[in-house]
Amino acid sequence: MAYLSLLSLLVLYLPYVVLISIFVGACILYVFRNSPLRVRYEQFLTMRGLVRAAVYFRIVYAGLLSVTQYMIWATGGGLGTFFLDSPLNATVPVSIIKNAPWIFSNQFGYFIFYSWGRFWLNALLSLVAAWAFYKLLVIFKRYNERFFEEGETELGYVVALLAGWPLIVILIPFVFLSVICISLFRLIFFRETLTTLGWPFLLGILVTALVGNILLSLLHWGVLKV
After folding, report:
1. Does position 174 have pLDDT exceeding 90, yes or no?
2. Distance between CA atoms of residues 84 and 114, nearest Å
3. How far, in Å, CA of 88 to CA of 58, rounded?
4. Largest CB tally within 10 Å, which of 41, 72, 110, 167?
C-alpha cells in the first residue's frame, strides 16, 4: 500500500509544483521580455511552451486522478470492487450515457462515468474556457493593438489555463480590476496613460489563486464546480 500513499501525495502536491512553476516561468518571460538575454533563455523557455505545458498538465492530471481513483477502489475491496464491476445501460437518465451507451455498457461503465464527471469534465471545461478567452484576446488585439505588447495574448492564455474552471470566472473580473488599479498607479506616479494587459494578467491570476475559492463560496458559485 506504500505505492498508493506515494500516488496520493503526488496527486495532492503535483498541481502546486507544476502550476507555480508555470507561473514563475511566465513572470520571468514577461519581466525580462526586453532583456538582451532573451535570445538565450527563449531556446528552452517560451510563452507558447508554457501554454503547451499547462494544456498537457490538465490532461495528464485528469488521467492521474483517474488512475488513483481506480487504485483506491481496486485495493479497497467491498464497495470499491463493486464500483469497478458495474456497467451502466442506456436506461440511466443521463444524456451522455444515452448518447454513447457503448462507452458505459462494459464492466468499467460506472468507473468511466465517475472519472468523466469528477476529473475529465473539469479538464475539458478548463481547456475550452482558456481557449475561448485566448481567442477573445486575439480578436481584441486585432481592433485595439495598443493594449497589447508582444506575447501578451499568449500570457493571457497561460493565466487562463492556470486558473482553470471555474476560477477563470473569477480571474476575468480581477484582470479588469487590475487594469484600473495599475493604470491609476502609472498615471499618478509616472504620468503614463497607457497600460497593456501583461501586468494585470499576472496580478489577476495571483489574486485569483489566493482568494478565488473563497469568493466562489461567498458568491454561492460552487455550483460551477465539476
Report:
1. yes
2. 10
3. 27
4. 167
Q: In the numeric block, which cell numbers belong to residue 186? A: 502609472
Burial of 122 from C-beta contacts in 10 A (0-12 / 13-18 / 19+): buried
* DSSP per-residue string spanning 152-206: HHHHHHHHHHHH-TTTHHHHHHHHHHHHHHHHHHHHHHH------SHHHHHHHHH
The residue count for the chain? 226
Q: Which of 59, 25, 23 is nearest to 44 (CA)?
A: 25
63 backbone dihedrals φ, ψ, rounded to 5°? -65, -40
d(CA 172, CA 216): 13
Helix (H, G, I), strand (E, B) or coil at 77: coil
Interhelix angle 198-218/168-190, rounded to 10 degrees, is 130
Q: Which three cell numbers stand for residue 18?
A: 507544476
3-state secondary structure 1-48: CHHHHHHHHHHHHHHHHHHHHHHHHHHHHHHCCCCCCHHHHCCCCCHH
Mean pLDDT, to the nearest integer, of 127-140?
96
From 36-45, 152-161, 216-225, the region with the lowest mean pLDDT:
36-45
Q: Which grid cell is 212?
A: 478565488
What does the alpha-carbon distance between residue 64 and residue 88 come to, in Å, rounded to a whole number? Answer: 23
User: What pLDDT is attached to residue 84?
Assistant: 85
